[in-house]
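Researcher: I'm preparing a figure for a lab meeting and need a structural model of a single chain. I don't have an experimental structure, so a prediction will have to do for now. The sequence is pasted below. Please return the structure as tokens so I can convert it later.
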Amino acid sequence: MSAFRQSVEAMIPALRRYARALARDGDAADDLVQDTLVRALRSERLFLGGDIRSWLYTILTNLNKNRRRSLARRPHFMPLQDDNADASGTEAEGRDIERALATLVEEQRAALLLVVLEGLSYREVADIQGVPIGTVMSRLARARAHVRAVLEGERPALRSVK
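Model: Understood. Here is the structure written out token by token.
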């Protein structure tokens, strides 16, 4: 197996973690990861070196944007919620955080997940999202403030895309 393929294979757990947090749906996340891997392996000759992690996250992020555009054209059905009142504190807190993340604008949620969950630098996130580093900093500040407000029970300000 080539060094390129070994590097791609080593990134699968991180790609799955990011895709699951980004898509909030296990099946959609698995599809995103599979599509990312297929595109990466088919495009091996286009990879000019550098950080393969950022390259793979960029592919996954772009695939997710395409998926969300496609979903926006379809009718939206609300899933039934299972709000277990007997859930432990940790379980309930996890659901609260998940709900807070779900209310974020897509670009803010992606930036927050890449920095907090995946440990990427602001520069790497800027490269992945194709925006200036200041925009990443702004998205992170807004995302953190929004999540904090939701967790504290405040009504967050209207969502803006930046």
